[in-house]
Amino acid sequence: MIYEKIRDLPDKPLVFYTNHSEICEHHHASIEIAYVISGTVTICADNAAYSLSERQFAVIGSNIIHSYTAQKGLCIVVLLPLAMLTPFRSKLVGCTFSPCVFTDTEDSLVKTLFDTMAKVIGNTADFADFNNKDALLQSLTNTFMVYLLGKTTFEKKTERSIPDGAVITEYLQQNYMTDISVSSLAKRFGYTEKHMTEIVKCLCGMPLKDYIRMLRINEGKRLLLENHTLDDIASRVGFSCTRTFLRSFVKITGQTPSAYKRDCTAGVSILRPNEELYFH
What we know:
Blueprint: E1 2-3, E2 14-18, E3 23-27, E4 31-38, E5 40-45, E6 48-53, E7 56-60, E8 66-68, E9 74-80, H1 89-92, E10 95-98, E11 101-103, H2 109-121, H3 133-149, E12 153-156, H4 165-175, H5 182-189, H6 193-204, H7 208-225, H8 230-237, H9 242-253, H10 257-266
Parallel strand pairs: 1-3
Antiparallel strand pairs: 2-9, 3-8, 4-7, 4-9, 5-6, 5-8, 7-11, 10-12
Helix pairs in contact: 2-3, 5-6, 7-8, 7-9, 8-9
């Protein structure tokens, strides 16, 4: 199982088309939607298998481990970062969806929304002169979420109530570069350390230190492509030294910073709208 290194854009949706047969187990913080345009696909999520056919789509919650095992058609895949789902985040973080598979019954509304997202992100001729693309993407996202909320219920991955889930997640995403511990987080939000450990595991799908490191490396990747030095990046994202940043970067991405930057500059492993994604 891998954390997908290029999927968690902090505040932008990601849209791509794929017809590959198998995709190994992976997870990411973004909500994933897989819509079958033609053929069939089988998705495994939370130890259950879901078979989809044309005009059906599956919704996979934040940090839910999932895989594609038998794809024989064309899918459009959309990843919605939590930052775009603020009005809905308290229901979405650490949740699974029941049911997981839906049918697009309203005259291909979902496919139209996702195709439009792809065109906006790809800056196609239809939207080249559109001034506020971010607002349009947010509107398309909200339209889909309202549609989804009318068709599903949500199941928490733990029996414990997490009334502060969205607030805690937002706090971590805004303060990951500082020294955050389970103890300090528990004190800030009024929980015991044991309860806070369980909450973080539920919200983030991993221990606190791993989630903080993931957020730091995500920001590090962005700064790397803006040509910041390694020393500057390590300091900005909260690592005590460049060596620790390098070690964490390789552990999470499987590449050195120089290799990652070279591949991105060359277009390798970059997901682009309206292009197939090649999984390695």
